[in-house]
Amino acid sequence: MKYFFRIFGCAMNYADAERVASVLADLNFEPAENLEEADLVLLFTCSVRQKSEDKVFGELENFRKWKTLKAGRRIGLTGCMVRKTSCQNSEKKDIILHRGPALDFVWRIEDSKSLHQFLTDSSANWKLETGNFFFIQPKHSNPAQVCIPISTGCDNFCSYCIVPYARGKEVSRPTEEILSECENAVKNGASEITLLGQNVNSWQKQKGAFAKLLNQVAQISKLKRIRFISSHPKDFDESVINVMAANENIERHLHLPAQHGDDEILRKMNRNYTAAHYLQLVEKFRDQLPDASITTDFIVGFPGETDANFENLLKFYKKANFDFAYFAKYSPRPETPAASFENQVPEVIKKERFKKLNDLVVATTAKKYAALKDKTLEILVERCVKNICEGRSSESYLTKFEGNETLIGKMVKVKIIKPREVELWGEEI
Ligand code: SF4
After folding, report:
1. Which of 79, 145, 290, 354 lies at 20 to 30 Å from 109 by C-alpha?
2. Is the CB–ligand 1 distance for residue 256 below 6 Å?
3. Residue 408 C-alpha to ligand 1 middle, in angstroms?
4. What is the architecture of the domain spanning 138-370?
5. Does the beta carbon of 157 lie inside 6 Å of ligand 1?
6. Distance in Å, CA 257 to ligand 1 centroid
7. In whole angstroms, what is the distance from residue 282 CA to residue 322 CA?
8. pTM reported for the whole predicted model
9. In this structure, which topology does domain 376-428 adopt according to CATH?
10. Of the candidates 120, 132, 146, 128, the residue with the CA atom closest to the CA atom of residue 17
11. pLDDT over 70 for what percent of the chain?
């Protein structure tokens, strides 16, 4: 039997899929090369924006057709869109099963150990196997670059965010468990480990605990690069900056989602910090790591965002002098408080503001990238297509150069010859 994964959304879903792949291997399933040869399709979903959910339902339609072409084919779905592990025959079934009749079952990721029951028993008389989902040994798709979750869930309840409802309360994994998974990954050829959590800085709910863990991971012999996502500005502090400065194998990059640059909007978002606090963190970080990059996330058109609030976001961007930003128009998520806030911003204004921010981000990044011409970066090669390799430097600069597939998973020195707006082109030296 063969399976085919369709993964949407963030790194957490990719990491979850590697554990599910391991459960399937124990059930004698193998990965399919393509959809046609698969017997089972599993979708790992994201519900951060309406668009993400629409995409899932769009693709489900294609999978519905695929299912009709051969008897016995099955479709399952997990991730942030699922609230209740259930199937079409369950007494109480998840709402997605009503919206997607081609789905056979949906499951909360922590119930993955019971996958054999979902696959063989459509009566829904399941005895869910509880226990630590993280005890499942992942089957890494790229052993050179590995993501290791250090926590799951989130207690922050930002007013726009679905994650606390979808993934539940924040649970931290113990140190020994994380270190042992990191050590194993390195033994199996990992050059880069990314420590994952919705808010890594609140790991174990103790000030300084994440910095200590980061330092321990950095001591693992032969581990060339460590990354971590995501940080929260209310919890990120000097302890992490100090550990980064002391360990060269920790990325020269900080991804610190700001979400906005105006205090009134940050308060409505329930982010629990001010723009000034964020800018102080940026200053402290650059004092110790002047050559490192800083990237961020923003939401434009949050309910009640006025022209003045938006102008403050642009000013904030310039002050922080970010290397790059990921941003999206606000998308109301039905279970969250912000969805019922007054003064929802009309789509046309969201679009206008999105464009203005995009122009600023592209112009700022282009200027920064231009200054990298003739510099040499060490790139960990992630993929090569048609003799163009692509990977990131320690600063997370996306870099492309000519090469071949034998370079995937290797660290390669690349001289930047052609900086483009938001990517760098270079040549191997
Ligand atoms: S910190 Fe806020 S935005 Fe991030 S996952 Fe938690 S609730 Fe969502």
Report:
1. 145
2. no
3. 33
4. Alpha-Beta Horseshoe (3.80)
5. yes
6. 10
7. 9
8. 0.94
9. OB fold (Dihydrolipoamide Acetyltransferase, E2P) (2.40.50)
10. 146
11. 100
